[in-house]
Amino acid sequence: MLAMRSPDGERSPPIALRKRRRIADGCAPRRLQTTMARMSILPIAVWGESVLHRVNRPVEAFDDALGALVADMFETMRAAPGVGLAAPQVGVDARLFVYGWDDDNGVEHKGVAVNPELFVSPYPLEPLTPQDDDEGCLSVPGYRYPTRRAARAILRAYDEHGEYYEKEAEGWLARIWQHEYDHLDGILYVNRLEGKYGASARRQIRAEGWGVPGLSWTPGVDDIDA
Ligand SMILES: [Zn+2]
Predict the structure, then answer these.
(1) Catalytic residue from among 108, 180, 194, 208
(2) Is 10 a catalytic residue?
(3) Which of 29, 133, 139, 154 could form a disulfide with 146 if both were Cys (CB 3.0 to 4.6 A apart)?
(4) Per the omega criterion (within 30 degrees of 0), is the bond before 219 cis?
(5) How far is CA 70 from the centre of its chain?
(6) Cα of 138 to ligand 1 centre, how many Å?
(7) Which domain holds residue 92?
(8) CATH number at residue 148
(9) Measuring CA to CA, how many Å separate 128 from each of 116, 120, 135, 146?
(10) Mean of the pLDDT values across residues 101-126?
(11) What pLDDT, in 10s, does the model give residues 114-129?
């Protein structure tokens, strides 16, 4: 059932349905608050917010503030719902992401990656397969496109307590890591789309009125199936 999942958003209606819903519900992303109140579920920045499109800064302190941010990011990711979330997506310029995904055997893969390094196998060169290769992103809510990713990855990172670790993954978990790691370099999956998929995504982003700073949506508050 990989086809039904995407790195950030697990459920996504057909695009036509989404666009009707968006118009009907009038739930356009709101202005991002410059000072975010401390709360469990954080606003998610939408394509165009500058922190999403630049290389983020390394985390320097493994302190209580980092622990609180990680807790809020997990809460926000689950509420979205999604299987990964990077700090810039909640407006924080920091090289940090969280992930949480249950595989087909019900085994939970969950973690925090602070100041990560990612090593990947060569990209497969076969044609992309819609559905099997589809990704979505909570910062580009409601859309999914086939995205080329390496089949295997090695993640080296620190957890929120400063403990260093190394893990290996293949398949969907490797895809999640690649998607989230990209965020820390200011790369969204839309930037990687090929040919007609990239053209279609750029057209839809323009049609949504995204691409300007200050847009966000909040899981549980805004009625968006990301
Ligand atoms: Zn994303």
Answers:
(1) 180
(2) no
(3) 133
(4) no
(5) 15
(6) 5
(7) 2-217
(8) 3.90.45.10
(9) 27, 18, 12, 6
(10) 96
(11) 999 999 999 999 999 9
